[in-house]
Amino acid sequence: MMFDFIKKKFAKKKPQKLPLPDVSSVPPMPKTPAKEEKTAKQLATERGEPWVEILSMDIDANNLHQGSFELDWNEIFVARLVKAGYMIKPTDTDAEIVDRWFQNVCRHVVMETWEQEEAIRQSGIYVQTRNIGDGRSEVS
Fold first, then answer.
1. What averages of pLDDT result for each successive group of 10 residues across the chain (140 residues)?
2. How many domains does the chain contain in total?
């Protein structure tokens, strides 16, 4: 008798099926926005630094001499350009000011290359290249 009593106390009980609550009227939980990483532009702007970046470069496949660059910048960069004299008219847009600066940078690259080649030509030092086959060259 005592054994039956203990057996009943420790016997597995059948799980009861509970009715599911009606959740149709409960509003959904608000989504926690994922913490976004700050961009280099945002970080530079927060530090009060000028920032510019080339986002993309496109080349015309039919004319390799033609292409374009897509730039992005912060307001601090434009302010520095204005201070440096890149704004010609008060109606110049930020894009016009940045474009004027970028054209100037490109001009300086071309001039530096030309000056180096001109200096080599005037010095009498000539670089000669001879094709020795199998995609190799001899330079003297």
1. 63 71 78 85 97 95 91 97 97 97 93 82 72 81
2. 1
